[in-house]
Structures are given as structure tokens and as C-alpha cells.
Amino acid sequence: MGLFIKATPDNFVKVVKEAEEDVGIKISCLLTDAFLWFACDLAEQIGVPWMRFRHLLAATEERDQTLELIPGLQGIKINDLPNEVLMDNQESPLAHIVYNMALNLQRATAVVINSFEETDPAITTDLKSKFKKFLNVGSSPLISTSKKSTSTDENDECLSWLDKQDSASVVYISFGTVPSSPLDEMLALAEALEAMKVPFLKLLPDGFIDRASKSHGKFVAWAPQVQVLAHSAIGVFVTHCGWNSILESTSHGVPMICRPYFGDQKLNSWKVQDGTRIGLKIGGVFTKNGTISAIQHILSSDKGKTIRENVQELRAKASDAVKPNGSSTRNFEELFEVVTKS
């Protein structure tokens, strides 16, 4: 992260100029990740609009203090906010980026979110009042699945195994590409799965698979996550709570068990458990008994039934949002108009 900050924005400006020369076309607008806050300066220099795209949840002393001032997040505690929001902007490279991103967001011609309005109506209303344009254009998993994924041996093996499992019975476990789970937590998770004897599909790094027990589950180095979550055999998703994973799970009606690690993941897990009520947060870290309780809660309890119903309702709203007259479709059309008229 430190190297990234040192290299920017000079390398960004250089690459933009090289791209223009390579294709022979002048850039008419900049649509960048919100972390690239310096893009707004370049956009002003070359006289084009800057649009900020974010693939995180729209909203991101005593740590147990409850906050009531953020629309749509009433009841959230300070401890549920990303650490980088609470740090001095010089304490870490990521905190520095978040700080500068927040300072420059209002300069954007449009703020574009990979989500859909119906998941956060209060937040959407509030942010529409704060930015020139605030556009939810997701859920991208529902848009991308309209194209059939390329078949590979890994894909086919994974999905074929799921075909043999009962409906809503499999625990799917994936923590993204960045988090590195502590060994003691992974052992506790393994002990819980072994004790429950539930079928599971778990992503493990290369080199670990050969050493893993394959009794009633399947270990893979990679899985086509959107296709996995769309499979009828999946009963619950154990996740690090990255926003893309939440959106993919929600879009296919799969409840979640959340173990956040850093960044927006704590806020996302609060939203899953206490906001939309479509899953549970692990109480701090994985323990054998805590994991067993969470899985049983989701798959077989009365409260779990309510969670499963909630996520199906949100799934329907996500599907409606990308229909021809849905909210995300209309927002995308508005985004297209802004880009093409630049």
C-alpha cells in the first residue's frame, strides 16, 4: 500500500496519456475506483467529468457507543466502523487513502455504486442529497450471470459434486483472496464441520488440499463463486464479508455467516446481521462451539427460517432492480447518458 501511494498520481497520469496515444482517442470522462481520489484533479486539468465507482457498501471515545446520526445505520456502534475511518489519516496508508477519498467525493460528476437502491433506501435517499449524482447500478452478479461461464475441469468438478448434494444442505466457505485466517480459527472451523458431519465446500490455498480430510466435504483451490452460490445445494455461505461476496450471496438468496477481518468488512457484517437480517456475525473469532451454533441456527432453527425468508425477499428485490424498468437499469441508463454526453 505504501508503494502504491508513492507511485501515484504520477504513474496514473502517465498511463492515461499512453492510453490516449495508443488508441488515438482523447478520454472524454474518467470513471475510477473511489480510492483513486487524485483522478478528480486530472479530470479537472483535462476538462472532463470524473465519476467515482465503489464496490463497497454505500455507508462506511467508546467503541461500544451507539451511533444514531447516520441515516440507514441507526443502532450501529463505533466498533462496527472500519478502523481506517477512526484513525488519524497519517496512521496507515489505507487510512490516508480513505481520508483523501472522503475529501474529494463531492467533486465527482457522479458516484456509482455496485448495489441496488432497495437494499438501503434510507442511505440512498441521504446520499442522493449529498452528491451531484448517486447511482446504484447493481447487482452486478445478476447481470454477469446472463453470460455462461467458460467450462473448465475445476468448474465442472466443483459443480458436479454439488449436483450430488441435497438442496440447501452445503456449507460453502470462502474468505476471498486477501484475508489470511489464523490457524487456530481454521482448526476450530474444521472441528465444527467434522462434528456436525454436514457437507461443505471449502476453498483452500494450493498445497493445503492434499493434506486436508475429504470425508464429507470437498476442498478446492478455486471455485466459480457466482455459479456455486446460484446452486440449489448451497445452504449457507461462511464469508469474510467483502461487499462483492455479500452481493453475490444476496443475489442468489443464500444466508451468510460473517467473519470480518478489515476495511469495510465489519460494517458489512453489521449490515448483514442487524440491518437487513440476512445472516449472522461470528462473535469475534471462530470457535468450534460457536461455529456449530451459527450453522445450526441458519440451517435448522426457527430464527434461521426468518433469516432465510429475509434473504429470499432481498433476492427478489435485487432481481427486480435489473429488470428493464428496474431502479438499477434506470440508473445505468442515466450513467450512460452522462458518459456519452461528456
Automatic annotation (TrEMBL):
Kindly state which keywords UniProt assigns to this record, in alphabetical order. Transferase
Q: Name one Pfam family in it.
A: UDPGT
Mention one GO molecular function: quercetin 3-O-glucosyltransferase activity
Against InterPro entries, the record matches this protein to: UDP_glucos_trans
CDD domains in the record? GT1_Gtf-like
What positions belong to coiled-coil segments? none
This protein's source sits in the domain of life called: Eukaryota
What protein family does this chain belong to?
Belongs to the UDP-glycosyltransferase family.
List, alphabetically, the PANTHER family matched. Answer: GLUCOSYL/GLUCURONOSYL TRANSFERASES (PTHR11926), UDP-GLYCOSYLTRANSFERASE 74E1-RELATED (PTHR11926:SF1560)
Entry protein name = UDP-glycosyltransferases domain-containing protein
